[in-house]
Amino acid sequence: MQKYVIALYIRLSLEDYKYDSMSIENQHLVLNEFVSSMPESTDAEVLEFIDNGYSGTNFERPKVQELIELVRANQIDCIIVKDFSRFGRNSIETGYFIERVFPLFHTRFISINDDFDSDQHKGDTGGMDVAFKYLISEYYSRDMSMKTKSAKYAKMQRGEYQSKICPYGYRKSADGRMEPNPETAAVVQLIFQLAATGIGAAAITRELFKRGIPTPGEYKATHGQQYHDVSRSRGRWSSSTVLRILEDERYIGSYVIGRRAVIEVGGTRSRMKDRDKWFIIPDHHPAIIEKELFEKVQAVQRRFSLPTRKIREYPLKGKVYCGCCDHALSRIAQKKPFYMCRHSTADVNSRCHTIRADAAGLEEAVLITLKKQLEILLPAHEDGTLHLDATAAKCSEYEKQLEDLRDQKQALFERYLLGQIELDTYKSRKTDYDAEIRKVKNAYAAVTAQAKLKREEQARQSNRQEIVHSIAEADALTSELTDLLIEKVYIFPDNRIEIVYKVHDRFE
To answer: Strand 486-491's sheet: what is its strand order?
Structure first.
């Protein structure tokens, strides 16, 4: 008999840490005490799912997703939560699962503090009180989100810095405020002074590299604040880093927050807001750059800025990399577009500094390479079909044998009931039939597995044939082909290229 499976779901958001009653330990205690009082808990399998640090306003939580998948696989008999808000604070989605999905898969849902048991509400939604509890839970989450934001804004207005990481040029003081870091603040001032003379970001990166000034990432790594791999930078500043520094108003003492807005409470997706909706706090912290110098640099930078252009799509977008430093190459959109390694701009002596790859020529070379792969592939896969008739016939034969053996076993049992054979004779022959049935079942399982493998191989061959035909008929490289087949294209200073394919089996 299949075991009764009980799932205990526990959720703790970041805001809930301040309440002991919401702690994981407390929820665990409440749920297990309740389970011990259930008659169904005898010999039941109890599973526990914990989402720690996740908001309940959406269902993008790893453990709740795992739980829902098990429900859909009919592997969960009962779900128990401390209250509705632990399962979810979105009234529509929470109601959908409790009232539609779980009943469909015969999964019982219990919310202890809400005195709700879906077994007591079969055929209805649990009444208006349940619906109101959904809505109250959602309202609480939205209200808490707004209060948290308001509290953060109030602290920022008092001069307290709320982020864990200070911008390059600053550090956090003992009382939690931003203060200039003498070492890096001098570098920021140098960058602004160079920009004020009218030179561009690329020239500034070369000057910083020449002086041996560590990049922001390298500086943080040497001071125990390594958040990403900086080994590839090799002391080379990028133009984008310099431009970000030159545009950052925090260097004149203003603190800018609220530039992006989260699309939904508890979600991770965000969008850029209009500048007039930003939250700007002037004189929030000591300035590194004088306001007059900052405005002068902005005026100079506007001369270098290009008008907004239409985003162009091209076949190798995001796939071309430098064979020396493994950085993505930039596609320079001129009359004859070409690829270059911007990372080498600061170091004129680097090997990648010489890379200039004609975009059209590169696309043609990649297509020719794909067609050569096609010439190798085509003879091996001219016949893309596999014959499954023999396997199907064998399956039918084993099915017929199983049916005959079961009929004979049933007939044997009937003869015993009629007193035509003795018990010992019945047991002996039954053992023989059982052994023969197991033997045929094993053979049937092996043939079925073989048939499945053949079907999968036939599907792979069919997929390969589609790829072969699409390459053969292509007159030019397309985004569809590169997205399907190519992971990266490496370019080396000697004009050599290497292609990394997405799936090796495509050409096997």
So the answer is: 320-322, 486-491, 497-501
The answer to whether the CB of 303 falls within 8 A of the CB of 290 is: no
What is the CATH code for 170-304?
A: 3.90.1750.20
Question: Residues with Cβ < 8 Å from 454, sequence gap 6 or more?
Answer: 386, 388, 391
Checking DSSP bridges between strand 78-81 and strand 108-111, what pairing results, if any? Answer: parallel
For 174, half-sphere exposure in the C-beta direction (CA atoms, 13 angstrom radius) is: 0
Give the integer Cα–Cα distance in Å for 464 and 484.
11
Q: Are 232 and 327 in contact (CB under 8 A)?
A: yes
Query: 395: which DSSP letter?
Result: H
Mean pLDDT of 139-164: 52
Angle between helices 359-380 and 423-473 (to 10 degrees): 140
- Contact at 8 Å (CB) between 87 and 93? no
**Residue 170, burial from CB neighbour count under 10 angstroms (0-12, 13-18, 19+):** buried
Give the pairing of strands 270-272 and 178-180: unpaired
pLDDT at 19: 54
Tell whether pTM > 0.85. Answer: no
Task: Judge if 5-145 and 170-304 fold alike in CATH terms.
Answer: no
- Could you give the angle at which helices 291-304 and 239-247 cross, rounded to 10 degrees? 130
- CATH code given to domain 5-145: 3.40.50.1390
User: Coil, strand or helix: which one is 437?
Assistant: helix
Q: CA-to-CA distance for 186 and 314, rounded, in angstroms?
A: 42
CA distance 241 to 249: 15
Provide the 3-class DSSP secondary structure of residue 234. Answer: coil
**C-alpha to C-alpha distance for 87 and 349, rounded to whole angstroms:** 59
Mind listing the pLDDT tens digit for each residue in 103-133? 878 899 999 988 888 888 654 444 444 444 4
pLDDT at position 108: 92
pLDDT at 130: 46
Contact present, 233 and 220 (Cβ < 8 Å): no
Q: Which residues contact 81 (CB under 8 A, 6 or more apart)?
A: 8, 9, 10, 31, 87, 109, 110, 111, 112
- The vertex-341 CA angle with 356 and 194, nearest 5°, equals 115
Helix H or strand E encompassing 50: strand 45-52
Structure tokens of 320? 């071309």
Beta carbons of 481 and 370 less than 8 angstroms apart: yes
Question: Strands 486-491, 320-322: parallel, antiparallel or unpaired by DSSP?
Answer: parallel
The alpha helices in 291-422, defined as continuous H runs, are 291-304, 359-380, 389-417
What is the radius of gyration, based on Cα positions, of the chain? 34
Domain boundaries, the chain: 5-145, 170-304, 309-508
Exposed / middle / buried, residue 383 (Cβ in 10 Å: 0-12, 13-18, 19+):
exposed
State the amino acid at position 450 in one-letter form.
Answer: Q
- 8 Å CB contact between 117 and 110: yes
